[in-house]
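Quick question about two entries, pasted in order.
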Amino acid sequence: MSFKSPKIVVVGAGSAIFGLGALSTMMQSEGLRGSQLALCDINKEGLDTITQLAHIMNQAWDSNMTITSATDRRELLPGADFVLVSIQVGQREAVWEKDWRIPLKHGIHQPYAENGGPGSFSHTARNLPIILSIARDMEELCPDAYYLNLVNPLIRLTTAVHRYSKVKVVGLCHQLLWGYAMAGTVLADRWGIEVPPHFHVHTDATNMPYFIPVARAAVDHLEIKAAGINHFSWVYDIRDKETGEDLYPELRDRWLNHMRKDFEPLTREIFEIYGMMPTAGDSHMCEFLSVVSDPVTKPWEKYDLKLQSWEGNRNRRASRQKLAHDIVNGVTDVNELRDVWRHDMLDEGIPEMICAAHYNQTYLHPQLNIPNQCYIPNLPADAIVEVPGAISKFGFQGVSFPPLPEPIAEMCRRELSLASLYVDAAVQGDKQKALQALLLDPMVTDIGTARAILDDMLDEFAEYLPQFAK
């Protein structure tokens, strides 16, 4: 057991989406009292604000942390035990919209364009150089530290760090909450869970105030064991948390036979066809399917598949930045940030994970993205899979599951093969491999279209893709 307090480096600390919630939960953690917290962001103004906020929290909540900050991560990495990474290359909503519009110009309507579809190529390729550069710095300056990656496309970027560096990497995501929210909605009357009229689990920022109460209530009453790959995970077991009763038969019957038809209709249909409930909700699950982008049948209309509201995301970012500024300027009490949920932020469980790994306090986490060591036997060995796991001084150890049904496993294997190609193409700046990857994408059905999309993306994002400039 280690008695030395951990050093935690947060790269992208100024992130309004991730930064405030993570900072609040770490600062309130009794287990992390006395830790070293090093904050890094290339945006000096945002970094100054979050650093001032950290000092205010530190004093108000008696966290006893040593706080440092710098725009250059190399100043902060020496001696780090954990490096949390939450960054994006390019203005998030602006580049995301281009990821969607470029394929649309060539006739491909992507339902979401973040983790799957041709737009996810540019999303991967933009973020990958900096993600790997951080890993290279860690190899030199803190080779024993854990790289905790929160950046999408999570499978691909976590794969890149695992394949092209020697650091220990874990991908972190909160998407299982969406599975809880869906199951809680279907089974709501068992526990009196209040579900708003016309409720859905779309990931848009404006839906979070409705989504979070349902998800939290479901977590109180349900226990879900799910596995697969990130944003394409599947429920193996679902039980009443208090009694242990198997609720899968009731969930299946209610959703397929008695639930309103417009509640996550694509998830419902996939559940019916394949016999397992997907956890991610329609918005993310659709990214990995070959049946959502047909220009004739327009399945995005049939299933009401929604894009992110980019303006909604901008408003959420501005609101959180204002909250941070108001606390720093004395307009708002710092205790407003004690409960992250009330501000529609998600508790990622980061303090619990860090304490477990550093102090050998075994902690079970429901969703880890780690290399497959027979955790899911019919998915490729060493590929990044998503499973629950135990965290201790021995690292992040996954729970083993039975094989996925073969049709589901094949869809997962295809995405893992696609992720592997995209990673190699983006690391090597190999246009031929990038084209091969696009042709493996389930939404791409024409060679000429793939070539045109690739050319446009390489041109549009040239400033972010130096690896292809050769």
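Here is the second entry:
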Amino acid sequence: MYAIIRDGGHQFRVEPGDSILIERVGLSAGEALTFKEVLFAGGKVGVPLVEGATVEAVVERPVKARKIYIVKYKRRKNYRRRTGHRQQLTRVRIKTINA
């Protein structure tokens, strides 16, 4: 059985045992996390959410995404700037789907 959840503006298709990367949450490793915005679970399609459905997860560790580079450039003006950014993420493991 799988579910589709929404967190941080992203949608994830998850099954028990899956590990996903979500936006950084203020929890440490080993703490429990519950997703209440369930769009699809156990064959039920939500309008927009499935009533009473939750997805239980446990926080594995905080991680950083790959570095992306932002480049500013103005032609013929000798203006070039390059900066980088690494998004703060959290890896969570899905435990159960309660539909």
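Reply: The mean pLDDT is 95. Residues 3-62+91-98 form one domain. Hope that helps.
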